[in-house]
């Protein structure tokens, strides 16, 4: 019952619903999603996040692997890792900050550990958790880092694994065949803001307010976002000096 309430709450946040968790091209919230998108985006709800994280944890349990410690790849892996700890009854949760995806849809060539672990992992069995394996670079560099700290066994797990990943995690909540940029509940405003800036930079001829943005998000990204959430995201960008919002016109701030 609680999960159902969380799922419905998550859908309200973006005003978006995935009609099929296994297919990301098709009909969503009553409108057809074009295959000719600039950046295909898919939004997950809190309920879906919990379901995928629990499925990932149960696959670890079924395998017989019993980690002593869970290491979350920050930032995206923190919440899935905490759910894994809850399901598996693991008390020790550490995190390592890895830089790879600098902003929505753009990443560096290789993942780099920004803030390493400061722990003796000698003889420990460790499970490294992230939200998604996209290129696999973050998982690969973190796995090596944990081994260098003396871990006896290191296995990896993700909520989702894309077909584009060159690194295959030991456990995953689901495999995704069609590439998409996934918008998770913990970075709604970050992603919405970056996607808004991407639109304004790529299409300087666009003129409109948050309501027009909602239409452009469907057109260019294939995702339905409520005008309320876009208004909030635009207000944050305006406060931070990235855009100028005057009346019904949102434009980039000259730099």
UniProtKB/TrEMBL annotation:
<dbReference type="GO" id="GO:0016757">
    <property type="term" value="F:glycosyltransferase activity"/>
</dbReference>
<keyword id="KW-0808">Transferase</keyword>
<dbReference type="InterPro" id="IPR000836">
    <property type="entry name" value="PRTase_dom"/>
</dbReference>
<protein>
    <recommendedName>
        <fullName>Phosphoribosyltransferase domain-containing protein</fullName>
    </recommendedName>
</protein>
<dbReference type="Pfam" id="PF00156">
    <property type="entry name" value="Pribosyltran"/>
</dbReference>
<dbReference type="InterPro" id="IPR029057">
    <property type="entry name" value="PRTase-like"/>
</dbReference>
<keyword id="KW-0328">Glycosyltransferase</keyword>
<feature type="domain" description="Phosphoribosyltransferase">
    <location>
        <begin position="50"/>
        <end position="185"/>
    </location>
</feature>
């Amino acid at each position: 019952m609680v999960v159902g309430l969380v799922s419905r709450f998550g859908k309200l946040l973006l005003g978006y619903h995935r009609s099929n968790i296994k297919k990301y091209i098709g009909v969503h919230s009553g409108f057809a999603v074009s295959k000719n998108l600039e950046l295909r985006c898919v939004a997950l709800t809190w309920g879906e996040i919990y379901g995928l994280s629990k499925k990932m944890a149960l696959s670890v349990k079924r395998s017989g692997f019993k980690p002593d410690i869970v290491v979350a790849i920050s930032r995206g892996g923190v919440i899935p890792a905490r759910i894994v700890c809850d399901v598996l009854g693991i008390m020790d949760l550490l995190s390592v900050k890895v830089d790879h995806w600098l902003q929505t849809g753009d990443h560096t060539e290789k993942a780099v550990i920004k803030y390493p672990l400061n722990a003796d992992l000698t003889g420990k069995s460790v499970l490294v958790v992230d939200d998604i394996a996209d290129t696999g670079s973050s998982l690969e560099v973190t796995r090596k880092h944990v081994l260098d700290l003396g871990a006896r066994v290191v296995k990896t797990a993700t909520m989702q694994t894309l077909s584009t990943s060159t690194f295959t995690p030991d456990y995953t909540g689901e495999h995704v065949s069609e590439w998409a940029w996934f918008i998770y509940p913990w970075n709604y405003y970050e992603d919405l803001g970056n996607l808004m800036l991407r639109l304004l930079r790529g299409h300087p001829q666009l003129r409109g307010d948050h309501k027009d943005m909602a239409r452009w998000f469907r057109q260019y990204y294939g995702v339905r976002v409520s005008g309320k959430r876009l208004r909030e995201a635009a207000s944050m960008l305006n406060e931070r000096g990235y855009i100028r919002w005057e009346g019904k016109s949102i434009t980039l701030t000259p730099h």
